[in-house]
Amino acid sequence: xxxxxxxxxxxxMAGSEEEDP
Length: 21
Known about the structure:
The protein is mostly beta strands. The N and C termini lie far apart (20 Å). It has no helices and three strands. The model has no long low-confidence stretch (mean pLDDT 63). Residues 1-21 are annotated as: Disordered.
């Protein structure tokens, strides 16, 4: 499973440059 990093802004970056609001 890929690591998902969510910022305080509300964007989730998974793997490369994938932003998920």
